[in-house]
Amino acid sequence: MYSEAKSAFAGKLVSERFYDGFFVSEYGRLEALRAARYNSAFSVVILTLDGGARLDESAGLDALKSAATACVDSIRNCDVAGLTGDRQITVILPETDWFGSLAAARKISRAVSASLAREKGRLSLILSNATFPKDGRGYGEVVAAALKRASDRKESLWEKEGFRNRLFWEILGDLTARGQKGTGCASFDAGAGRELNEFFLDQINDFVAKEVLRSPQRRGIAYFAFRNIDPGLPLLKSLNASGALSAKVFLVGEGGARALEVKNATAILLDDPRFKEIFFTFYLSEDAGYALVCKENWGETFSCFHTSDEFLVEGLITKFQNEYSLQEQLG
Question: Which has more pLDDT, 14 or 214?
């Protein structure tokens, strides 16, 4: 199937910056040698068109052509994209670190998803990324890491529950109501009369904050959502006592009566009553992802969900930024 598509499709688009698998592999190998010599980074984003019509059918080829065109239109002139497998497109991003590859994957995803929505092939899109030297010592290892992440993403709650097609607050409500369990995630109750009291949630936030502060040079992004952003919060004291951070930290909620001065963090004041009953913590770095979502019930009790599923964390951050028209960034 791949050989048919390659001859019928990829060759026609070489002049339009969409190449065959051999060219992409050779370019990737040379890019790995260059990055190693100059101690720089490069990244790979892999798109897999999943399900739908068979690739050798007209509808499947039309969808693939549309996806390839949208992909090429959304990347830089220095980036290289091509068909590298059955319904698989690989993009090589020179001079791009891990967070840069996430941003590129977002842009590619929007463009390709819009193009697929117009096609009859009904193909869904799975994107994954990997970066040299973080994920491998050569091009082959980086690609293998990206393919492994694609497999892991399919097993994520983000994909299994179809959260990409849901609204942000719908997802949070679902996570706190259904008692989700599985690899890397769990539900629990806290508060008055529970084994875990309400201060346990502050302890979790303190742990996340310490993870951010422990390596101030590490890039990352963290959102801490409160009912009110009060200057007396222990988290604010920790941030104010720290040196400069590479991670971006945001405090979300309503402002208190007192003036708010926070070092190493940006306050996002949102007048939304939903923050009075549901609060959350999101943290994403190159090495880890974590999310805590808690809904307050009657009697000062909380229904909570937490996860180390980095794909779910990334998706929640993206949804939150988009639905509140915040600056789109991941680190």
Answer: 214
